[in-house]
Design a protein that fits this description.
The chain contains 7 helices and 4 strands, in the order ααβαβαβαβαα. By secondary structure, it is an alpha/beta fold. The chain has a 4-stranded parallel β-sheet with strand order 1-2-3-4.
């Protein structure tokens, strides 16, 4: 999507280009906001709610949110559960394999901040945002599928407010300091 970013920046700089850019933004944001294909990254008990969310009762398909097991086919990673320091490199690697533009939802207290492992644990990452750029946080232990549904809608709203001129590509590289991927030694 780097080409789309370049087109956006070019249009933004060109005289009268903002008219075309606004129309193009509306079209691209409409398409992206209505087809957030999801990488289900269940790492602990919150994954049960993530699995429940994929059943017909909640009907995520109506939002275009299809679960896909392949990181190269998805737009959104939903990290549901505790991320241990040993698991962190695997989650990071899958994230790196997702094409730009991409978004991240942290589902559950553990993914948001370490949850019940916030204190007194040397094995747990204190929130996915220590190594991924999280767009939407869902609190709860565990959150229900309805909360995930709300998060998908909030994300769609956020996507619709973005412009290709802002160059979302490689946003993660710009926002985050380089995080250590190797698990730390136990004290
Ligand atoms: S937030 Fe609660 S339910 Fe979710 S992974 Fe942590 S302990 Fe389990």
């Amino acid at each position: 999507m780097a080409v789309v970013d370049s087109i956006g920046r070019g249009l933004d700089a060109a005289p009268g280009g903002d008219v075309v850019l606004t129309t193009l933004d509306a079209l691209i944001d409409w398409a992206r906001g209505h087809s957030p294909w999801v990488m289900p990254m269940g790492t602990a008990c919150c994954a049960m709610e993530l699995i429940a969310a994929s059943f017909a009762k909640f009907d995520f398909d109506r939002h275009g949110a299809f679960p896909r097991p392949d990181p190269r086919h998805v737009d959104v990673m939903v990290v549901a559960g505790t991320v241990t320091k040993k698991m962190q490199p695997a989650v990071q690697r899958l994230w790196d394999q997702m094409p730009e533009p991409k978004w991240c939802i942290a589902m559950g207290n553990c993914a948001v901040s370490g949850g019940i492992f916030l204190h007194d644990s040397y094995t747990v990452v204190r929130g996915v945002d220590e190594f991924l750029p999280v767009d939407v946080y869902i609190a709860g232990c565990p959150p229900r599928p309805e909360s995930l549904q709300d998060a998908v809608l909030q994300l769609a709203k956020k996507i619709r407010s973005e412009s290709i001129a802002e160059g979302r590509t490689h946003r993660a590289d710009l926002l985050l300091p380089e995080a250590p991927c190797e698990p730390e030694e136990a004290p």
